[in-house]
Amino acid sequence: MRAAVLVGPNRLEMQDVPTPTAGPGELVLRVGANTVCGTDGRILRGEKTAGVRQGVIMGHEFSGYVHEIGEGVEGYSEGDLVGVMPTVPCLRCHYCLNHLEHMCINAKLFGYWIDGGLAEYVLVSAEAIERGAIVVADPGADPAEIALAEPLGCVLNGVDNYGIDIGDTVLIIGAGPIGLLHTMVAKQRGASQIIVVNRSPGRLEVAKEVGATHTVLTGDVDVPEYVKDLTGGLGANVAVQCIGALDLFQTALQSARNGGRVNAFAGFPKGQMASIDPNLIHYNELTVTGGSNMGRNNYRRAVQLIGDGSINVGALLTEPFALEDAGAAIEHVSAGRGIKTAVIPG
User: Fold this and answer.
1) Residue 286: Cβ within 10 Å count
2) What sequence ranges are listed for the domain Alcohol dehydrogenase-like N-terminal (predicted)?
């Protein structure tokens, strides 16, 4: 089969590799779609190395169809469309045993250590199946949309951390794919005002289409003042930073009302520090949280929300790429083009 293999930094090769076969307890999936995210670019450039194996087949956001069922595997039928949660937790470490399996210190990930979805077929180990990595999706769903259960599941984890109540005003800083998913979930959770801020105008139109009630270019207004004007001087109930710009974390803190919630969802440049006024947290009694990865429950919820149409992730899909052009797809995303790009084998 054909596969996109990470040979080394900035070296992704399309190779002919053996097509996997299912042993006892295993599944082989025919890949339906693999969506690309910024992390793929960081892995390819050698900027992200933790848990990454040289020679791995890349791709961690993917779905597939059950192609071969190994002896002893139950609950799946040939042809089932399934989503694959990329993180395989150990279920034994301190974090796994304390309801934080998404922070597992022994986790292995598809597309990092385990061969991933930028291939025609994927082998799913007995270990991954037993630990809940495979979730059957609605049979009529688009496989590229089911692939987006990975980023949606991560967003659901973040929302669990910061919380959205019906009628809340939610500020979302950054209109990339993650910011747009937070926008969709905020709408689905009943937020009354959803303000999306971005440094370029193109994606703000998409933000309006998926649920934003107000969109703002950062250079056009003072964002905290704008938010306060919309809320009778109070500020946002929730401010979520979805872009790793250090200066905008202070903006998030300034935009939240007293007793509000601020979430640092974006990954920030490693080793760099943000300059903030901690008194905003102290005197305004802000709750500050983060958000990283997801557990099995949020992945299952994401597959369900996509399958039943509650979250229209299809609105984020732009230009598809063929498997042979997987490297070009990663470059496309790294350059900030499109929104969510899917690589479709076959």
Assistant:
1) 19
2) 23-128
Nearest residue to 249 (alpha-carbon basis) of 274, 226, 225 = 274
User: Whole-angstrom Cα distance, residue 152 to residue 128?
Assistant: 20
Contact partners, residue 221, CB within 8 Å, separation at least 6: none
DSSP state of 219: T
Q: How far apart are CA 137 and CA 307, in angstroms?
A: 7
Check if the beta carbon of residue 289 is closer than 8 Å to that of residue 161. Answer: yes
Rounded Cα distance between 156 and 338, Å, is 23
Instruction: For 52-77, write each residue's pLDDT tens digit.
Output: 999 999 999 999 999 999 999 999 99
Distance CA 227, CA 244 (A): 21
pLDDT at 268: 86
Q: Length of the chain in residues, anyone?
A: 346
What is the token pair recorded at 178? 């993650």
pLDDT digits (tens, 9 = 90+) for 200-227: 898 999 999 999 999 999 889 999 999 9
Query: Whole-model pTM?
Result: 0.96
Q: Mean pLDDT over residues 82-94, rounded?
A: 97
List of domains in the chain: 2-148+317-344 (3.90.180.10), 162-290 (3.40.50.720)
What is the reported pLDDT for 270? 82
Determine how β-strand 256-264 pairs with β-strand 287-290. parallel
Q: Are 43 and 58 a contacting pair, CB within 8 Å?
A: yes
Whole-angstrom CA distances from 83 to 132, 143, 149 are 11, 8, 7
CA distance 40 to 19: 23
